[in-house]
């Protein structure tokens, strides 16, 4: 079992005027990676930031933090090279946004980044499955992409369980409405990379929330390995 529990705060929920400082604060609170939400106002009805911001953030936080780019954009092909040059580590694109996932996976790898493949709530897991052996991470959205602070969709958990049963060593990420109240469902289903925005960043004690999320996921991983 190659995967481990990792917690990635979504910095969209932080004070965007102090993004560099917030990233450093989250890493200091025990985050395993940072989840950066890129929205283009077209694929989703919201706008955030692009590669110039990522480049500045990289300079501000140094070489270590792992940047997981959640690309909620209509033409993901367009930003592969700029994001790699800006210091992104993983490029997670939506299967709904491209007609040629195979080519995009290849381009991302050639740019030196890891590959993540995301599905929106309305997309079946069968559409992701053919690519699962070529990617580093599958992202199952647990809200409709576009905004932080939405309600967790528990009915996405069968997708996670199915992926875990079919691809036992794949990194599986959940994103949207995940926090102390919903983490058990995600962990039991088999998710190991946990994005949490408002629950972590809005907390008075982000360190404790990150630690709790990681413990719940690590225990579920341990239990699964004993049951095998
Ligand atoms: O991609 C998205 C939303 O589209 C997420 O990454 C959210 O920003 C996570 O925030 P919370 O739902 O945890 O508050
Ligand atoms: Fe996200």
UniProtKB/TrEMBL annotation:
<dbReference type="InterPro" id="IPR013785">
    <property type="entry name" value="Aldolase_TIM"/>
</dbReference>
<dbReference type="Pfam" id="PF00834">
    <property type="entry name" value="Ribul_P_3_epim"/>
</dbReference>
<dbReference type="InterPro" id="IPR026019">
    <property type="entry name" value="Ribul_P_3_epim"/>
</dbReference>
<keyword id="KW-0408">Iron</keyword>
<feature type="binding site">
    <location>
        <begin position="146"/>
        <end position="149"/>
    </location>
    <ligand>
        <name>substrate</name>
    </ligand>
</feature>
<comment type="subunit">
    <text>Homodimer.</text>
</comment>
<comment type="function">
    <text>Catalyzes the reversible epimerization of D-ribulose 5-phosphate to D-xylulose 5-phosphate.</text>
</comment>
<dbReference type="GO" id="GO:0005975">
    <property type="term" value="P:carbohydrate metabolic process"/>
</dbReference>
<feature type="binding site">
    <location>
        <position position="35"/>
    </location>
    <ligand>
        <name>a divalent metal cation</name>
    </ligand>
</feature>
<dbReference type="InterPro" id="IPR011060">
    <property type="entry name" value="RibuloseP-bd_barrel"/>
</dbReference>
<feature type="binding site">
    <location>
        <position position="70"/>
    </location>
    <ligand>
        <name>a divalent metal cation</name>
    </ligand>
</feature>
<feature type="active site" description="Proton acceptor">
    <location>
        <position position="37"/>
    </location>
</feature>
<keyword id="KW-0170">Cobalt</keyword>
<keyword id="KW-0479">Metal-binding</keyword>
<dbReference type="GO" id="GO:0004750">
    <property type="term" value="F:D-ribulose-phosphate 3-epimerase activity"/>
</dbReference>
<feature type="binding site">
    <location>
        <position position="177"/>
    </location>
    <ligand>
        <name>substrate</name>
    </ligand>
</feature>
<feature type="binding site">
    <location>
        <position position="10"/>
    </location>
    <ligand>
        <name>substrate</name>
    </ligand>
</feature>
<feature type="binding site">
    <location>
        <begin position="197"/>
        <end position="198"/>
    </location>
    <ligand>
        <name>substrate</name>
    </ligand>
</feature>
<dbReference type="GO" id="GO:0006098">
    <property type="term" value="P:pentose-phosphate shunt"/>
</dbReference>
<feature type="binding site">
    <location>
        <position position="37"/>
    </location>
    <ligand>
        <name>a divalent metal cation</name>
    </ligand>
</feature>
<dbReference type="InterPro" id="IPR000056">
    <property type="entry name" value="Ribul_P_3_epim-like"/>
</dbReference>
<dbReference type="GO" id="GO:0046872">
    <property type="term" value="F:metal ion binding"/>
</dbReference>
<comment type="similarity">
    <text>Belongs to the ribulose-phosphate 3-epimerase family.</text>
</comment>
<keyword id="KW-0464">Manganese</keyword>
<keyword id="KW-0862">Zinc</keyword>
<keyword id="KW-0119">Carbohydrate metabolism</keyword>
<protein>
    <recommendedName>
        <fullName>Ribulose-phosphate 3-epimerase</fullName>
        <ecNumber>5.1.3.1</ecNumber>
    </recommendedName>
</protein>
<feature type="binding site">
    <location>
        <position position="175"/>
    </location>
    <ligand>
        <name>a divalent metal cation</name>
    </ligand>
</feature>
<keyword id="KW-0413">Isomerase</keyword>
<feature type="binding site">
    <location>
        <position position="70"/>
    </location>
    <ligand>
        <name>substrate</name>
    </ligand>
</feature>
<feature type="active site" description="Proton donor">
    <location>
        <position position="175"/>
    </location>
</feature>
